[in-house]
């Protein structure tokens, strides 16, 4: 059941409401801890700002009043399309596919597409094509797997190698593949980065069969969830689903706007863990993907080492950023660019955005300040200090 206060407004990807408060019956208002990163329909979000807390207090009173009223007027909310969620574990993470006003079977069908991509692309499952490729065999990929591989090779090239799917030997040396963390020596890393070369791997791919040069290994961790989101969204749309939220382990994909034709609200997780999120994006029909050093890391001798690697040095990418969020139509691109722009850093990342376009970005610096690209203006709210990067500039 939802209780809404506000004006209706249009639902383009990056449009912000003029005014809007929405209260959901199972709102994080009552359970703030539940709101982490995903896009959730019908939230009034927690905000450290005092004014917002005041609004929340008032809103809470209104909720109780309206909830009591709703109990009296039975059937008041019967017209709200119900939502159903398929929750599952794939690609080493928890995933949710929520469909609104549609048969849950559509979500299960989308889930099975993600599951089969997981079986093919997992670097750890012995029956996967990626595992076979990494042991030096000629590995055959399905049509989807092959499409992802060729997109990934193109994206490595497009990002000038900031994204490099052949980074796996370096990931292994750091222990990120086994959770047995260690800091590799300089000479060990220098040897390993010689094996990081997406263009050599791309040459060994004929469109279906991949036979990697000796010692090379691929890792699709930076792009697989984004590609899976694209295929899952495609399947949902083909089944006639008009409103859906997919949260594939922090990669959010949105089908349409919410059932009232309003943008979804997607929280951008606080990379410093001080609050649940640092910004809210009001978006529809797009992907919102974040990469950050806080997702997987370990500490040794007072230093923090995380799982996003600069392919040139083999070291965790340290560019003054805590996280990068990308908003765009293509899930695989958003995924690739969130990792690549984290590696590039703010300055090169903005330069890349100006040259390539087709997506928007949000950078969270190590000091907590935020930079958004100009296309996010009007879709973005935050109580942190923030500035806008312009295309001409
Ligand atoms: P996550 O999958 O944790 O949400 P990313 O999309 O940024 O975050 O992907 C990080 C994963 O991608 C790492 O766990 C590793 O497997 C792989 N990876 C790390 N650095 C790179 C890189 N520079 N290029 C390509 N893949 C990378
Ligand atoms: Mg990524």
Question: Could you walk me through the main structural features you see in this protein, from its secondary elements to its overall organization?
Answer:
The protein has a domain at 2-80 and 244-389: Roll (T-fold). The longest helix is centred in the N-terminal third of the chain and has 23 residues, at 50-72. The chain is globular. It has 10 helices and 18 strands. The protein is α+β, with helices and mostly antiparallel strands. The chain has helices at 50-72, 104-121, 129-134, 143-158, 168-174, 186-193, 198-203, 224-238, 331-344, 346-356, and strands at 2-6, 20-24, 83-90, 93-100, 139-140, 209-210, 244-248, 251-255, 264-269, 277-283, 287-292, 297-300, 303-306, 321-328, 359-365, 370-373, 380-381, 386-389. It binds adenosine-5'-diphosphate and magnesium ion. Residues 222, 291, 335, 338-339 line the site of magnesium ion (MG).
Please summarize what this structure is.
The chain is α+β, with helices and mostly antiparallel strands. The protein has 10 helices and 18 strands.
Bound molecules: adenosine-5'-diphosphate, magnesium ion
Largest sheet: 9 strands, mixed
Report the top-level CATH class of the domain at 2-80 and 244-389: Alpha Beta
Element pattern in H and E? EEHEEHHEHHHHEHEEEEEEEEHHEEEE
CATH superfamily of the domain at 2-80 and 244-389: ApbE-like domains
Structural class: alpha+beta
Radius of gyration: 22 Å
User: In whole angstroms, how far apart are the ends?
Assistant: 46 Å
The helix content, as a percent range, equals 25-40%
Strand order of the largest sheet: 3-4-7-8-11-14-15-16-18
Task: Give me the number of helical elements.
Answer: 10
Overall pLDDT, averaged? 85
Oligomer: single chain
Principal-axis shape equals globular
Low-confidence stretches: 1-12, 15-56, 65-78
- How many E strands? 18
Q: Can you name the CATH architecture of the domain at 2-80 and 244-389? A: Roll
